[in-house]
Specification:
The complex is a heterodimer of chains A (638) and B (253). With 638 residues, chain A is α+β, with helices and mostly antiparallel strands. Chain A contains 17 helices and 19 strands. Chain B is elongated. The termini of chain B are far apart. Chain B folds into two domains: 109 residues, Beta-grasp domain (Ubiquitin-like (UB roll), Roll); 133 residues, Orthogonal Bundle (Fumarate Reductase Iron-sulfur Protein, Chain B, domain 2). Classes of the chains: A alpha+beta (638), B alpha+beta (253).
Chain lengths: 638, 253
């Protein structure tokens, strides 16, 4: 299939305006005739559902949480970018666009990224009006801070809880619509299948997690806002329930999956403390504004941090990247930390960290300033590690965090299945091979508030006065049966090992061979080990209890089963991409001083994979990326 | 370390439950409380017993999903800490730990340690928002907000909606949760237009599900985010005003 990205003609800065003028509209009185399903209630899902409800559409929104407010967007700490230029430091829409394209190592689509930068300012206006308590100056105006990979201050923040406050904003907008009755909310409801008729998305199959009941829901369009798939690694910064099932089910129904190998390993996480660790905790990147990263100059130095004199400390980021210093982008910072570890310079009891030291900032600014900026992060660190970061430097280490890859979408955020949309982290569109800090919140809200509510109308307009496919239609009955069969199959295995055991094993393979650095022999090894483990899973997983009640093991079984297949695609995509770019670092392709080496001639494309069945390899489709407004240069932060 | 757990097990909302005793052996001090439960569940699965169901998600103390009564205290013995951020180093070898679900009429039990807190969503739906249709907002710097007011609103907005305040309250009251949201929005200039209706509607909805407040103050001591009791005073003041306010005249100041 030829991939049509549907990017409008015209100059970059006029594409979105032109699109909005040319698109088909659904009149206000006709909107109530359409039904739209939204899966997920994070920033993208909640903002989309709320806005679609406001517009007058009939919306059904589903979340597997007990409340929409729990989605993992809530854990984002540092902030949200916008091109407001409130600092007067040279920011502009074009600069935000440029930084995002460059930060993504030239593997994203220009038109989408420009639109993202364009609507970024409206997001700040919208959220402020909703009562999001962004940090302010004494004059009452909004404050900003810097994030990695940029040289302006464009990040808006609410202490260390920006994601929480933005999510509560969109959750509250959603709650308003639920109260009015335009949106129907389904909690503890997990989507297990997308339903297609004549190639179009017409509904979903859902399991009620509390009662086990399986129900089908039909609509004119289905929107997936189900987040990323970093939990494939088992240990990640994602919440425990984050999973790739919704997008994977869509992939198996014909939606292409793009750039699966583009995963972001976040540099500032708390290192694992033992083998029972269930997840890794992220410390906001904003800490790198005031903390200095270092390791002892000498390998295997047994001295505590305080005992190492200044002259024997290696502030390796400041040394290697003088222009950006501790604020280099995440992929660069993570790889640099790994290199220190490979040279046996890791610190802490398990030698699995590098220092993030606030001593100099506390001396310069005073403890109270540092406290106002980061107190909640410092407290969180102390609770987990039992160490006081005001007195001893923090220890940090990279951990899987965000997935730039996801379902392939066109300019309208529609997947290759008509009527099926993917928004937020669930799609692949805006961050290329590496996402800049404070841009995930921006993209989630851009898609949900300001892009999808327009583009979905352009699709729906042609179905005016047609009913959604009846949920009595055979396509729904078949899908429902498939879901039931799959659940009974899991329950019937009655093996000997827990779902978590398999998940942990999968994670170990994936982080080893498809983590911060990758190489051909490793990826090939992973591609033989993962299917073997998967086979074992289907023979030997043990799920107790029954399926007609709350059963968290059964929920996890379905998610881990999909992670097995997704992990394979990640490795396959990584193997195919014979270059290093952003978070994807192939050891075979690096410069003499160990920096990533892109190969634009051959790989300036988005790799969109097409499911061809359980027993055959997926087909690779390429969307050639066209750069008309930026010049492809070697990304340098020196 | 080894500890003994007395865990509330209950198969469904309407089946009777009871305590079951489990030995948690070889527990590391570095484990979080929930990782200790994960370990016990692994042992249960290995022994062919149905694992203990408990709600949890982010494990960073921000999503508000987790919440257990640990020895009768919501979120356990460490102040200002959600269950997922509690670590086993706060316990001693040989301890007997009692684990129960949130105990409140407003939060019916789903299974084992999992409860239904959807009444909280109903309170927010009744008015816990500022009405701003997407796209209609003015420039963000048009309305300056005094820093102190913004900080106070943020203090209230930090609520994670876990329900510990209700669980600890002898009356099963949800005043602290409701007051936190009302204060967050009522303290900001943006929230003034709907201030009185919001307060009255949210409080009235709250009272359909939860008990009455008698100013005991347990809620604030159990709160993992230290939401202040002062916000309840603010809510009560605005509720009283809201009941008598001539709303047609509120555009004048």
């Amino acid at each position: 299939m030829i991939l049509d990205s549907k990017v409008p003609d015209g100059p970059l800065a006029e594409k979105w305006e032109g699109y909005r003028f040319n698109m088909k509209l659904v009149a206000p009185t006709n909107k109530r005739k359409f039904k739209i399903i939204v899966i997920g209630t994070g920033l993208a899902g909640a903002s989309a559902a709320a806005t679609l409800g406001e517009l007058g559409y009939n919306v059904d929104v589903f979340t597997y949480h007990d409340s929409p407010r729990r989605a993992h967007s809530i854990a984002a700490q540092g902030g949200i970018n916008a091109a407001k230029n409130y600092r007067g430091d040279g920011d502009s829409i074009f600069r935000l666009f440029y930084d995002t394209i460059k930060g993504g190592d030239y593997r994203s689509r220009e038109a989408n990224v420009y639109r993202l930068a364009e609507v970024s300012n409206e997001i700040i206006d919208q959220c402020t009006a909703q009562g999001v308590p962004f940090a302010r100056e004494y004059g009452g105006l909004l404050d900003n801070r810097s994030f990695g990979g940029v040289q302006v201050s464009r990040t808006f923040y609410a202490r260390g809880q920006t994601g929480q406050q933005l999510l509560l904003g969109s959750y509250q907008a959603l709650a308003r619509q639920v109260g009015i009755g335009t949106v129907k909310l389904h909690t503890r409801a997990e989507m297990l299948e997308v339903v297609l008729k004549d190639g179009r998305a017409v509904g979903v199959v859902v399991r009620d997690l509390a009662t086990g009941e399986i129900t089908t829901h039909s609509a004119h369009a289905v929107v997936l806002a189900t987040g990323g798939y970093s939990n494939a690694y088992y240990l990640s910064t994602n919440a425990m329930a984050c999973n790739g099932t919704a997008i994977w089910r869509a992939y198996r129904k014909g939606a292409y999956f793009a750039n699966a190998a583009f995963t972001q390993i976040h540099p500032t996480c708390i290192p694992a403390s033992d083998e029972f660790q269930s997840k890794l905790t992220l410390m906001s990147e904003s800490l790198r504004n005031d903390g200095r990263i270092w390791v002892p100059e000498k390998a295997e130095d047994p001295r505590p941090a305080a005992g190492i004199p200044e002259s024997e400390r290696d502030y390796y980021l400041e040394r290697r990247y003088p222009a950006f210093g501790n604020l280099v982008p995440r992929d660069v910072a993570s790889r640099a930390a790994k290199q220190q570890m490979d040279h046996n310079k890791g610190v802490g009891p398990l030698h699995n960290g590098v220092y993030l030291d606030f001593r100099d900032s506390i001396e310069r600014l005073g403890r109270d300033v540092i406290e106002t900026r980061y107190s909640n992060l410092f407290e969180m660190y102390e609770r987990i590690t039992d160490e006081n970061p005001y007195e001893v430097p923090m220890r940090i280490y990279p951990a899987p965090h965000y997935t730039m890859g996801g379902l392939w979408v066109d300019y309208e955020l529609m997947t290759t299945v008509p009527g099926l949309y993917a928004i937020g982290e669930a799609n692949f569109s805006d961050h290329g091979a590496n996402r800049l800090g404070a841009s995930a919140l921006m993209q989630g809200l851009a898609d949900g508030y300001f892009v999808l509510p327009y583009t979905v109308g352009n699709y729906l307009a042609k179905y005016l006065n047609t009913d959604p496919v009846s949920s009595e239609d055979p396509v729904f009955k078949d899908a429902e049966r498939e879901v039931n069969d799959r659940l009974s199959m899991f329950m019937g295995i009655k093996g000997s090992r827990s779902v978590d055991w398999f998940h942990r094993e999968l994670g170990m393979i994936l982080i080893e061979y498809c983590g911060m650095t990758r190489n051909r022999p490793g990826l090939e090894k992973a591609l033989s080990e993962i299917p073997a483990l998967r086979e074992e899973f289907y023979k030997d997983v043990r799920i107790l209890g029954d399926s007609e009640t709350l059963n968290q093991s059964l929920e996890k079984a379905g998610r881990v089963a999909d992670f097995f297949e997704l992990a394979e695609l990640m490795c396959r995509d990584a193997l195919n991409r014979e270059e290093s770019c952003g978070g994807h670092f192939r050891e075979e392709h690096q410069t003499e001083d160990g920096e990533a080496q892109r190969r634009d001639d051959e790989f300036a494309y988005a790799a969109a994979w097409e499911w061809t069945g359980a027993d055959s390899e997926p087909t690779l489709n390429k969307e050639q990326l066209v750069f008309e407004n930026v010049e492809l240069t070697t990304r340098s932060y020196k | 370390m080894n500890v003994t757990l007395k865990v509330w097990r209950q198969e469904g909302p309407s089946t009777p439950g009871g305590f079951v005793t489990y030995d948690a052996s070889d527990i590391s001090h570095e484990m979080s409380f929930l990782e200790m439960l994960d370990t016990v569940n692994e042992q249960l699965v290995a022994a062919g017993e149905v694992p203990i169901e408990f709600d949890h998600d982010c494990r960073e103390g921000i999503c508000g999903t987790c919440g257990l009564m640990i020895d009768g205290i919501p979120h356990g013995p460490q102040r200002s800490t959600a269950t997922c951020q509690l670590h086993m180093r706060k316990f001693r070898d040989g301890d007997v730990i009692t684990i129960e679900p949130w105990r409140a009429l407003g939060f019916p039990i789903v299974r084992d340690l999992v409860v239904d807190r959807s009444a909280f969503d109903r309170i927010i739906e009744a008015g816990g928002y500022i009405t701003v249709p997407t796209g209609s907002a003015p420039d963000a710097n048009l309305v300056p907000v005094p820093k102190d007011a913004s900080e106070a609103a943020m203090d209230a907005a930090a609520c994670i909606g876990c329900g510990a305040c209700v669980a600890v309250c002898p009356n099963g009251a949800a005043q602290l949760f409701t007051a936190a949201k009302i204060a967050h929005l009522n303290l900001l200039p943006q929230g003034q237009a709907e201030r009185w209706a919001r307060t009255v509607n949210m409080v009235d909805t709250m009272e359909e599900f939860f008990g009455a407040c008698s100013n005991i103050g347990e809620c604030t001591s159990a709160c993992p985010k230290d939401i202040s009791l002062d916000f309840i005073a603010l809510m009560n003041r605005d509720y009283a005003s809201g009941k008598v306010k001539q709303r047609r005249l509120t555009g004048q100041h």
